């Protein structure tokens, strides 16, 4: 759903009135006035665009891998962290040392007590792969950026944007360890399973979403710098779509991040009869707004209800976008992306 929406939104962002109001008659002149993010030849633009698309896909895969580590409860298997990275255990003695470290963690004593060394190796490799995938991206990104900069392909505007994205990526590693560290602390109650802080998990996911969106947005800006030639009515239709798409994009982001509080509660599957159970509201609940806001972050029932409610609102909003724009005169690519986004949203909810 994210990919379809971002493709659609990126197309809209380029359809400004200044560049497109006279696109039907002066498209060549307008294209010449645009400031491209990549200099040199068409080949250079393709090379930089491909690199950024691959980087965005790399981040997407990393988010998926992070979800797998959570499902397999592998995230707390590595009890220390080094910024420069480290080699995995290579001998039986090194594996036993790592296993002894894990045995001191709250997760082992509460959930995995008595697990075998083979089982520990599995969860260790899952978390190690997740961390090394991120470090590998940082290295490849830095080397590629240096190469294209030396070739003279990168403009100052694009260079600043890429430096910002690289800094966010480096910060993501720090936030990831900050998140894991919260799960290595003893729970305040004996009846609570060791888990990472849902606040830190939400921050980790939100930053991943920002980096992914930034890379994809930049890749599209590099790959398609010139807006298509549109009629005046197509420009007006695109402007209306953009006004509707921006708040929907914000809602999509909030819905995604709110899922971290459901996952962080470890009770996301506790309420299987939504919206009936755990989601009953009345006017008498309004005075307790402060308590509700607190429960949104700390109570599994409220967090689950709100997340599913926002997901439903997202689907309805995207459906409304499609319905309200079906009679507009739009560029075929825009109409195609609206349909694609609706299909992705429906599949995501299902």
Automatic annotation (TrEMBL):
Keywords: Heme biosynthesis, Iron, Membrane, Metal-binding, Oxidoreductase, Transmembrane, Transmembrane helix. Pathway: Porphyrin-containing compound metabolism; heme A biosynthesis; heme A from heme O: step 1/1. Its main location: membrane. It catalyses: Fe(II)-heme o + 2 A + H2O = Fe(II)-heme a + 2 AH2. The chain crosses the membrane at residues 48-68, 132-153, 159-180, 201-220, 244-263. It is a multi-pass membrane protein. This is Uncharacterized protein. Pfam families: COX15-CtaA. Its cofactor is heme b. It is found in: Membrane.
């Amino acid at each position: 759903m994210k990919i379809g929406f971002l493709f659609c939104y990126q197309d809209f962002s380029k359809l400004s009135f200044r560049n497109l109001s006279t696109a039907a008659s002066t498209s060549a002149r307008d294209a010449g006035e645009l400031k491209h993010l990549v200099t040199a030849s068409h080949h250079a633009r393709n090379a930089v665009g491909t690199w950024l698309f691959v980087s965005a896909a790399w981040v997407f895969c990393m988010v998926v891998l992070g979800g797998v580590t959570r499902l397999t409860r592998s995230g707390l298997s590595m009890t220390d962290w080094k910024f420069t990275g480290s080699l995995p255990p290579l001998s039986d003695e090194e594996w036993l040392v790592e296993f002894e470290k894990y045995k001191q963690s709250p997760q082992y004593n509460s959930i995995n007590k008595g697990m075998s060394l083979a089982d520990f190796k599995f969860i260790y490799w899952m978390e190690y792969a997740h961390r090394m995938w991120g470090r590998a991206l940082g290295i490849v990104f830095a080397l590629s950026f240096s190469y294209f900069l030396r070739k003279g392909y990168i403009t100052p505007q694009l260079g600043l944007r890429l430096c910002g994205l690289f800094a966010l990526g480096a910060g993501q590693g720090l936030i990831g360890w900050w998140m894991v560290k919260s799960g290595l602390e003893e729970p305040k109650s004996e009846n609570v399973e060791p888990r990472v802080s849902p606040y830190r998990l939400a921050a980790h996911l939100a930053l991943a979403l920002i980096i992914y969106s930034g890379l994809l947005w930049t890749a599209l800006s590099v790959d398609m710098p010139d807006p298509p030639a549109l009629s005046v009515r197509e420009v007006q239709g695109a402007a209306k779509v953009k006004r509707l798409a921006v708040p929907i994009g914000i809602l999509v982001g909030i819905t995604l991040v709110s899922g971290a509080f459901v996952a962080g509660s470890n009770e996301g599957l506790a309420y299987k009869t939504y919206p009936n159970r755990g989601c009953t509201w009345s006017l008498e609940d309004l005075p307790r707004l402060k308590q509700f806001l607190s429960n949104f972050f700390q109570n599994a029932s409220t967090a689950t209800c709100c997340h599913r409610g926002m997901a439903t609102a997202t689907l309805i909003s995207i459906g409304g976008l499609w319905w309200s724009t079906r009679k507009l005169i739009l560029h075929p690519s825009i109409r195609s992306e609206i349909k694609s986004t609706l299909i992705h949203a429906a599949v995501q909810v299902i």
